[in-house]
């Protein structure tokens, strides 16, 4: 059996994931031995696959839909980022114990720091649209960055309340009937829904109440400029696409598995954009 470190991305399906491209690029430019591959694992086989990780030569891996909560349940030790969300997207072994973290929030913040310096504004109000799995990491990260209010807007208010709770005392939940109120206050506006993704309908939101200074970001990165971002740009707002979140969330895992902290460079971004333009499929993996 090879002694070179071997990692993977686990999902169902997972062939659409660009994680092997990202990690493969870093392995090449840093001249490191190792490999990173797809691992399509159906839910009923997930626990057995992870339990046999080390036996099969894996030092760890990334986890994408629909396995993040199942991964968390298998951890011997959960980093605070995973414990707060009840979900893990990065796994590794240390002292024969399975460790896990959730790097989605880290990736989200790092993308904005990189692409829109000063995006926090007064760090008073952040607005998150949607209450799916991605919004959980976003709300928690925004509260951790020091926002006084993190408003989560969703058609089902009960789901928004669950996400807003992850922002602690800063969290506020409401329906779309109150969107105008938060748009007028927000320093940053986040589309955390999948609407706007290739193959899906556009997010139907009127942005007229939004402040000129607000920074607008979308977690979707296929297409790079969603209709939501295009509408915000047309109003003169700064916009940030979702690709950087994918790139930055991969950094901590690579460092754990291969021993080098990689950089997210324009070269890497261009490599993935070229692949997107050739494929134009959906997904955030």
From TrEMBL:
Keywords, comma-separated and alphabetical:
Amino-acid biosynthesis, Aromatic amino acid biosynthesis, NADP, Oxidoreductase
Can you give the residue ranges of the Quinate/shikimate 5-dehydrogenase/glutamyl-tRNA reductase domain? 124-194
Q: Start and end of every SDH C-terminal domain? A: 242-264
Q: Which SUPFAM superfamilies match?
A: Aminoacid dehydrogenase-like, N-terminal domain, NAD(P)-binding Rossmann-fold domains
So where does shikimate get bound? 17-19, 64, 89, 104, 221, 249
**Which parts of the sequence belong to the Shikimate dehydrogenase substrate binding N-terminal domain?**
9-91
Pathway of action: Metabolic intermediate biosynthesis; chorismate biosynthesis; chorismate from D-erythrose 4-phosphate and phosphoenolpyruvate: step 4/7
Keyword ATP-binding tagged = no
Active site (record annotation): 68
- EC code: 1.1.1.25
Reactions performed catalytically: shikimate + NADP(+) = 3-dehydroshikimate + NADPH + H(+)
Summarize where NADP(+) binds, as residue positions.
130-134, 154-159, 219, 242
Q: Which Pfam families match?
A: SDH_C (PF18317), Shikimate_DH (PF01488), Shikimate_dh_N (PF08501)
List, in alphabetical order, the Gene Ontology terms for molecular function in this entry. Answer: shikimate 3-dehydrogenase (NADP+) activity
PANTHER family (UniProt xref): BIFUNCTIONAL 3-DEHYDROQUINATE DEHYDRATASE_SHIKIMATE DEHYDROGENASE, CHLOROPLASTIC, SHIKIMATE DEHYDROGENASE
Question: What's the family?
Answer: Belongs to the shikimate dehydrogenase family.
Its job: Involved in the biosynthesis of the chorismate, which leads to the biosynthesis of aromatic amino acids. Catalyzes the reversible NADPH linked reduction of 3-dehydroshikimate (DHSA) to yield shikimate (SA).
- Summarize the subunit comment: Homodimer.
Q: What is the name listed in the Swiss-Prot or TrEMBL entry for this protein? A: Shikimate dehydrogenase (NADP(+))
Q: Which organism is it from?
A: Methylopila capsulata
């Amino acid at each position: 059996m090879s002694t070179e470190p071997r990692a993977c991305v686990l999902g169902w399906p997972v062939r659409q994931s660009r994680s092997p491209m990202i990690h493969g690029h870093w392995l090449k430019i840093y001249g490191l031995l190792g490999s990173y591959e797809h691992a399509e694992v159906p839910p009923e086989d997930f626990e057995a696959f992870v339990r046999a990780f080390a036996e099969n030569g894996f030092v760890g891996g990334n986890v994408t839909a629909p396995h993040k909560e199942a991964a968390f349940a298998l951890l011997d030790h959960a980093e605070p980022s995973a414990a707060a969300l009840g979900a893990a997207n990065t796994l590794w072994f240390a002292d024969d114990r399975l460790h896990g973290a959730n790097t989605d929030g880290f990736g989200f913040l790092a993308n904005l720091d990189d692409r829109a310096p000063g995006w926090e504004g007064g760090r008073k109000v952040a607005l998150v649209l949607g209450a799916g799995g991605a919004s959980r990491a976003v709300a928690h990260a925004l509260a951790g960055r020091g926002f006084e209010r993190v408003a989560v807007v969703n058609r089902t208010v009960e789901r928004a309340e669950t996400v807003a709770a992850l922002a602690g005392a800063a969290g506020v939940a409401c329906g779309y009937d109150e969107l105008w109120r938060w748009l007028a206050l927000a320093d940053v506006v986040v589309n955390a829904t999948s609407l706007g993704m290739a193959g899906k309908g556009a997010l139907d939101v009127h942005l007229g109440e939004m402040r000129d200074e607000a920074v607008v970001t979308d977690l979707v990165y296929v297409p790079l400029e969603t209709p939501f971002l295009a509408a915000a740009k047309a109003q003169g707002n700064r916009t940030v696409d979702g690709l950087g979140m994918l790139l930055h969330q991969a950094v901590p895992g690579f460092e754990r598995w291969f021993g080098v902290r990689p950089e997210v460079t324009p070269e890497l971004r261009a490599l993935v954009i070229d692949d997107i333009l050739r494929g134009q499929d959906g997904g955030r993996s």
